[in-house]
Design brief:
The structure holds two protein chains of two kinds. Chain A is mostly helical. Chain A is built from 13 helices and seven strands. In chain A, strand 5 and strand 6 form a beta hairpin. Chain A is globular, with a radius of gyration of 28 Å. Chain B is α/β, with parallel strands linked by helices. In chain B, 36% of the residues lie in helices and 16% in strands. Chain B starts with a helix and ends in a 29-residue tail after the last helix.
Amino acid sequence: MADIQAPRKSNTSILNSIAFRGVAYQVLLAAGVAFIGYYLYVNVNANLERQGIATGFDFLSEDAGFDIGESVIPFDSSQSYGRVLVAGILNTLHVAIVGVFLATIVGVLMGIARVSRNWLVSKLASGYVEVCRNVPVVLHVIFWASVIRNLPSPRQAITPFDGIFITNRGIIYPIPEAHGIYPWLGVALVVGIIGAFVLGRRAQKRREETGQFIPTFWPGLGLILGLPTVVWLAAGAPLVWDVPALRGFNYQGGASLTPEFVALLIGITVYTGAFIAEIVRAGIQSVQHGQVEAARSLGLRPGLVMRLVILPQALRVIVPPTTSQYLSLTKNSSLGVLIGYPDLVNVGNTTLNQTGQAVEAIAIMMLVYLLISLTISVFMNTYNRLVAIQER
Amino acid sequence: MKNLKLTAVAAALVIAQQTAPALAADGPTLKTVKERGQLICGVHQGRYGFAVADSKGKWVGLDVDFCRAVAAAVLGDSEKVKYIPLGSVQRFPALQSGEVDMLSRTTTVTLTRDAALGFNFGPPTFYTGTGFMVRKDIKVTKVDELDGASVCVFPGSTTEKNVSGLFKSKNMKFTPVVIENSKELVGAYMSGRCDVLAMDQAGLPGHQQYDAKDPNEHVILDGVFSKEPLAIGVRHGDDQWYDIIKYVTYATFNAEELGLHQATVDKMKNSNNPNVQRLLGKSGDLGKKLGLDAEWSYRIIKQVGSYKDIYDRNFGEKSPLKLPRGLNAQWNDGGILYGFPMK
């Protein structure tokens, strides 16, 4: 017996330990991944060196030498490739942020409209969803680009209101000339929004404690709009419009949205909006009908049923898939390269071609999209935790 | 899709196996091309006169003819070419990664491209410079009047930098509209999105003739605003292939100079001129020195033509463009084409 037991003891090798195996597999996998990464790095360097191709990121500080059509930050051709890439990143963020904002509004409205009991409204919304989500996003973008390019030239601009010009060079609109008081209007607006938010929370707390309903919509709106107005009036109501006027080839003065920006924005918004509409509809329909009936029988108005009963429960279904839609919208903004919007991919491609640093330029683009996507994910996951149903 | 392809090319560059350059009789590129039985040539996606697929889907143009000349010299048949249409952004990675054997794609030779991208460029096959086309109704007659204009321009091209530099030097402003796809870019100009279309001047008449609803509504402004020597590019590290490209180009120049053209080359076969005899492989061993057979240059002239044949077919009298030869004439005829002695 002892003869048999002794070898068995020594057989219980560390290889059979579950804990060890768990760690070992992970270490092996990590080592494998690291090795492949190292191999690719060494191989690419060897290949580049063999072909006599210069490598590295030194080109970022060289003069770019080319101009871009629009930029959030000032840029001209004597500045560096690094700066033009930053301008490209900001253009990407610009169209993506506005796009996410608009797609959410379109999606929520269309999603609610789809479950509306009004036959016309619900059919129109389904028509929008079915048409827009079944057409590839590339075609959306190119379609809107060609629509806008075929608008009248600056000399025959469409002017829906005085001072606003819709042309194939973009939408040109007047803006107020800068004045010292304007930053304070912004501050007042932020204070107003915070005030309205606090008011809403107070009212909600009061309602939960006492059941007493306090209307907050009009007071809140008054706070948000009223505060800046008061500040503006107190400063003597300064307002001078910078009205665009046709000089030379194009309008000077005012501000403008370029055709490329508008086409890309409409294209990706309309496309993503259709998907968000479906997500919102699914979220609303995931709330059992009994809940709605219960809420109605308590005497809640339809708007309140939506706000207080349906949406809070629907949001936990809506938020996670919407995050993916935001991500895909951001990545789809790279289609701007097809129509000439100077986003990251567009200026990245130009940089790549001027400098020949293909691997570096594409690595930068990939890294930036990765960072933007991860940021959106983190933000949306946090929001998801906030709207998740808390057990009470 | 463009980007996918671009990424794929960059990925190919990343994972391409390392192959040591062999210095044997047949260099690696020549060997690969012969074994494959086909030359893979990177060309423009569509620029009239240089490379464009005709109504039957056959590639035609000056750049295309140089691909055919190389195929005729190396493989004996000018039709054994596979054309890879490349955007201005994809062209360099495509050559670097070995996707194409040679790049004959309206490519301007610059120091950076020659030295830092790992390329060698043959003798220029075409001399041009940045030119501007505008609609007549904007009543502009010279470039100095373009302050504030929107300019349609290809991305990553030397033109893009030239336009920026030119407007800056004249203290004028402009808005670039940069679209990679030629069709989209020219379409943007034609639909009125831009006031000006900027590209190599030799490319403008083609778009004026073929893409405009009424060619008379457009005018090409006088003046050429940069030096754009367009040449065939090959990879560093294969000197023999580089030599072949170089002397295929010179063969077309020298053929014209010697009066050897596609239609007449057979009649000249028995000429006593030693230069003609050498070029047609009747004497000497020029082909052998390049790693080719004796009739390599005869086939170029017979199947593709002299430089005059190539120019006339694509830009000159026999084409709708009717572009005067200008700099692209022989050195003894007011131009700067100067074929090196082939002996």
